[in-house]
Amino acid sequence: MGKYGVVRRRRQRSRAAVGHCGDDLGGCGGGQRAFPKLSKLSLSHNSMTDEGVAALFVNLTTLSELYLGGNQLFTSSWISNLTSLRAVDLSRNSLREFNGICNLHQLEYLQLGVNMLHGAINSCLGNLHQLKYLNMERNFLTGEITPNLLSNLTKLETIHLGLNNLTGTFMLSWLANSSNLAEIVLSHNYDLRIETEIVTWTPLFQLAYLNFSNCIVNRRSDGVVPTFLSTQLSISGIDLSGCSLQGKIPSWLFYNISDFILLNDNDMDLIDMDGLGGNMTSPVQVLDLSDNKISMSIPTNFGSIFQYLEYCDMSSNRVYGGIPPLAEATSLEGPCPPSIGVHRLEHLSLENNRFSGQLSPLLSKSSNLKTLNARSNHLSGIIPDGLLSFQKLGVILLGGNDLHGPIPLDLCFNNYLHFVDLSNNRFSGKIPDCFYNDFWTDLPMYFDDDPFSGIVTERMSVDFTTKGESLTYMGMPLVLMTGIDLSMNQLSGTIPPPVGFLRQLKSLNLSHNQLVGPIPETFMYMEDMESMDLSYNHLNGSLPMQLANLSFLCSFNVAYNNLSGEIPFQSQFETFDESAFEGNDNLCGEIINKTCSVLHQNQGGVLSDDAIDTALVFWSFVFGCFALGFWGTVAWLIWDKGRRKRLCSFMDALMYKLGWEFVP
């Protein structure tokens, strides 16, 4: 970035080095008389206006650095006489123009990001030959980037023009002679066409970062990956996502870039494997090839090539074959030489491809894994022992496959879980009843440190079905959300009561299984529950009244079970409609417009279990038996005179023996 590359460092310097004016602007307004040697001044994040700064800076011609970011400035004419300025920060204002800056020929650092600049970029920038840092991102700039605008700025180190509305064709060869260039950001100019291949050129620069995302790259050259990148030997990352790239991903790309490669949302169809392998290892840590048209099997030596991967996303492609081993072992497709695996891998996404076969047991050795997403493939077999027991594993997405067998007990001993999706498979047996352990009872299900760092933080997202729709979670909602989806399997047995102790669980889907028994009353402890779907099972018994007190519950479904009794009509349950309870013939209540009788009968005319269990029936039975016994005895004595006399004689003899004395 050069001398003025990091504004924050300037802001943190001592007050002796940088002038700070207080509320009494007259103290600064004295100009040269008050501060004859003032060279650096910061008034960022105040309420400065055009009128205020015009009076303030009229005589401060000795200034070399001026920081006024985060104020209320609209114009720049007041700055034109400060010709000694070498660094200017006017970001996060409301600037409509920057004409006054055109006179600052000593300027090296210019920050104009997040303003209201509109129209074409003022060509006067091309005359600021000392400029090293230029940032005009997040404005409303339109029109073309003309050849003479940047080509004369041979000292440029950083160019940020992203998030504008620039159009036309920009030839990267115009910057060939900018030997100090380290960063180019032109992202999110959706109609800007960037060409790197039309002319033959050799760059004098060595980039550290390139971002052309959501621009149109090399349309006139069949959408190839820019070949000049093969000459960039110290580049840390590239973002060419959404650039309409086509064809082959060159193998040299994986060796030249040290941190991240983002090629998602393109039309790439193949990875050139000819140059991969041997003794070479890629330094790439983040690899995103999702949403392309890659049609190939992943090579078995993938793990030995990408030993430093922390995040890998190849979802929504046409990849087929087995998932390659990611740890030291042989291939699932047959024997192959052992290879060192991706022990540092933290995020793996292979969703929506054509992977088949079993989940590799070698995944269980990727102990740093935090996210595993192999959803919507053709995987079969059981989940290998130990695969879900990683202490850092926070996201398990294996839904939409053909996995079978029991749900591993490993699931219960993980204290970092946010999302578990095992839906739409063939899992059978009981739901693990081991959720009573300390990990899940306290269930922070929140990472105690930032699980996603750097570029991963910006890109990490999880799609999860809850409240009847698929939602995308990223950023803070991703950290706070917790959900379990075991729907559309063949699970049987009862719902383990300890599940109710997952107090911070927000979404639970157990629908479309073969579960029996009652809804556990422990569900009353799910204080953060927002969505619960227990439909299409064989559950019986009554609805626990306490469920109505779950104040965040906004989606609830128990349709098509064997539930009976009265549906609570209070608190949250008042918001649900009758479709949530349909298919339960023995339910009654105001929600489904069905009056509850004293002895509610089922279709066959037999008293339901709940009717027999009511307090009224119980006490009626007690008093009935008492009345029957009492009046039966009395009637027997009244109608049989002989037995009545014998009973009286017996009572007299008994009293005499007990010492009673009677008076005739």
Task: Lay out the secondary structure.
Blueprint: H1 7-11, H2 26-29, E1 40-42, H3 50-56, E2 65-67, E3 87-89, E4 109-111, E5 118-119, E6 133-135, E7 140-143, H4 147-150, E8 158-160, E9 165-166, E10 169-171, E11 183-185, E12 193-195, E13 209-211, E14 216-217, E15 237-239, E16 246-249, H5 253-256, E17 260-262, E18 267-271, E19 286-288, H6 302-305, E20 311-313, E21 320-321, E22 347-349, E23 354-358, E24 371-373, E25 378-381, E26 395-397, E27 402-405, E28 419-421, E29 426-429, H7 438-442, H8 455-459, E30 461-466, E31 469-474, H9 476-480, E32 483-485, E33 490-494, E34 507-509, E35 514-517, E36 531-533, E37 538-541, E38 555-557, E39 562-566, E40 586-588, H10 609-612, H11 615-639, H12 641-657
Please give a structural write-up.
The model is unreliable at 1-32, 327-342, 437-455, 599-614 and 660-664 (pLDDT under 50). This protein has twelve helices and 40 strands. Helix content is 13%, strand content 21%. The strands form six sheets. It has a 20-stranded parallel β-sheet, with no helix packed on it. With 664 residues, it is of the alpha/beta class. β30 (461-466) and β31 form a beta hairpin. It starts with 6 loop residues before the first helix and ends in a 7-residue tail after the last helix. The protein has a domain at 455-488 and 505-588: Alpha-Beta Horseshoe (Leucine-rich repeat, LRR (right-handed beta-alpha superhelix)). It comes from Leersia perrieri. The chain crosses the membrane at residues 616-639. It is found in: Cell membrane. Belongs to the RLP family.
